[in-house]
Amino acid sequence: MGDVLTGFHAAWEFASDSVLIRYERGIRTPKLFQALGERRVPLAALARVTLTAGRRGTVVLRAEPRPGADPLMDAADGQLKEGSDPYRLVLPAEQAPLAEHHADELRERLTETGPADRHLVAAPAVPLRFKAYDGKASFDGAAVRFRWSWTGASSAKWKAGDQSFPVGDLGGVRWRSPEVYEGHLRLLRREAGAASGAGTAPPRPDQDPAAVVFGLGYGPVHESLPFAAAVLAAVRAAAPAPVTTVAAGRRDPADIADRIRHLGELHRAGLVTDDEFSVKKAELLAEL
Question: What are phi and psi of 17, to 5 degrees?
Fold first, then answer.
């Protein structure tokens, strides 16, 4: 191996034990790809490889990572849209024979398909930072820090003050895509998890000093997701016991009703369109 396969937005360089993915920079390239720059993916981290027909005279080469092998995909928890999938390479249809050749070679070298017991793909390098709706988040590899903004932070967060969370005090991280209603990044603290009951609902992200919220269209995916992945990888490295991204559970109906009322206020004020109101209301009702 050692060949390079160049597609739209990325190029894959094949080695005997890994694939180096270099993402392009440009206005048409997904912003997440630009933030990632390049990633070396060990073949041990991959479960399978597929080649399928794409749209408008293209083919799609996709590598599927093993569960638990990539902190970025662990943090994303299935929320990435197809166009932002970092394991997807779109190629002109005339490159299909060459792509099939490389896909076959990769398949011959894949030996594992089950969950990985540790991260095999390197996490995004620190330091990392991004600006959310209600504050600025930074991570230096040892601690996560939230600094609240004057315009977006709730009174609860201002009362709590700026926050610093050592990695050793964290049990995980939850990332909810900025592309959906109430996107946020929440840190899961070990002591808080031990003290709360199984049926206890977490506080709303805008009221939780351990969370930053993205707001409607605020807090770009390309900055917040690599940040979440780096934190998740550091937490796992600091404590070998399994950590999770914690999927959203069923919400309190009263809380859902309150959120729908708030959404209605935004709609009446002209801050949310009719379509956005319908979609986001349906998302909230689905959480009941």
Answer: -125, 5
